[in-house]
Amino acid sequence: MTDFFNGISKIKYEGPQSDNDFAFRHYNPDEVVMGKRMEEHLRFGAAYWHSFAWPGADPFGSETFERPWFGDTLDLAKLKADVAFEMFDILGVPYYCFHDADVRPEGADFAENTRNLEAIVDYFAEKQETTGTKLLWGTANLFSHRRFMSGAATNPDPDVFAFSAATIKTCMDATIKLGGENYVLWGGREGYETLLNTDMGRERQQAGRMLQMVVDYKYKMGYKGAILIEPKPQEPTKHQYDFDVATVYGFLKDFGLEGEVQVNIEQGHAILAGHSFEHELALARELGIFGSIDMNRNDYQSGWDTDQFPNNVPEMTLAYYEVLRAGGFKTGGTNFDSKLRRQSIDPEDLILAHVGGMDACAAGFKAAAAMLADGKLEAARDARYAGWETDAGKSLLDSDLNAITARVLNEGINPTPKSGRQERLENLVNRYT
């Protein structure tokens, strides 16, 4: 045991009336909703990078967090793991997620990076065995180091492509060894700053081939987990090739991977792309590529990815409504890709941020489940499209322009507008939240 969270006991459910900051008011892991325990529905995970690797810097200021594990040695990496698994236990989160660079010291070359990662993976395996915490997903950090300043798979230098491919292999190996239920690819710099020095066609081909290699390796290793892509429109690059769910689906179709790869959708990235979170979730569901979510929020007065802990219950209600409509999580879950504010420097802040996020998610999830079970929103939607369920409506899509025109003339079709009843439905949603 470390003393970083000294004096903080395991967080328990105490109900909505509790005035204990260190208690859950809405998240009761054993509460049964729609036939399953809430823990099994939400599948909470903690992000290793924001919680334990981010030092609190921003573009205008240096680090504000002083953590005893900061530094590039294996001993410090193991101390970081000790503290991380203590936090997982305090919160009762069943899962965690990591990039390779979050957990291992940076080596002088690929071989040393690999040795460092393998040492930490062995340590994680021991931690998982003793605590019961599991790996939701692993991934490779192919964006922070200066070698990736022009991308990884999309880099104009084939040596960087090779280094990236080898790094992905080691991270997939780590994920498989730890029983990770998914492997995520987030192309942090797979995009461009200017078209003046960019061959977009070549870069897309490189990215597509890299993804095909990942899928091939999955089958070679007999890995049963899901391969996920996390869409993001911009920042740090001006334009990224995985802009949003629709763009990713087009990319997957282009390279014959639409049946092999799903999406890990982040709330903050959806907003940056000009969408709502529920839009991206609904589209992924309709396209059959919904996999997992990163839960956070953006500051709507800022034009960048602030990664704040979630606290907007109505937003989360609509998000989890789409998750439930997709049949719920299978291998995916709710990962808190969220970070403290630079001024929140105390260990207690890290615990309380997760407590608040988990409670807000639970409240939103229960509202979504009640809304789906009640069926009024679905009934209103079905009524709006009822005409398409008639024989005449069904026949339209199998017809042609000449036949449809003849029908309009013969039947004297002259439609009048019908209300979309948006305000009524917004009021309905507010009854649950």
TrEMBL record:
A GO MF term: xylose isomerase activity
Catalytic site: 99, 102
Subcellular compartments: Cytoplasm
Swiss-Prot/TrEMBL catalytic activity: alpha-D-xylose = alpha-D-xylulofuranose
InterPro entries with a match to the protein in the record: Xyl_isomerase-like_sf, Xylose_isom_bac, Xylose_isomerase
Binding site for Mg(2+) 2: 266, 269, 305, 307
Enzyme class: isomerase
Cofactor note: Binds 2 magnesium ions per subunit.
Top-level taxonomic group: Bacteria
The EC number(s) this enzyme carries: 5.3.1.5
Cofactor(s) for this UniProt protein: Mg(2+)
GO biological process, one term: D-xylose metabolic process
Binding sites annotated in the UniProt record for Mg(2+) 1: 230, 266, 294, 337
UniProt KW keywords: Carbohydrate metabolism, Cytoplasm, Isomerase, Magnesium, Metal-binding, Xylose metabolism
GO cellular component: cytoplasm
The protein's assembly and partners: Homotetramer.
HAMAP family: Xylose_isom_A (MF_00455)
NCBIfam families per UniProt: PRK05474.1, xylose_isom_A
Family to which the UniProt record says this protein belongs: Belongs to the xylose isomerase family.
Protein name: Xylose isomerase
Species whose genome carries this gene: Yoonia ponticola
Lineage of origin: Bacteria, Pseudomonadati, Pseudomonadota, Alphaproteobacteria, Rhodobacterales
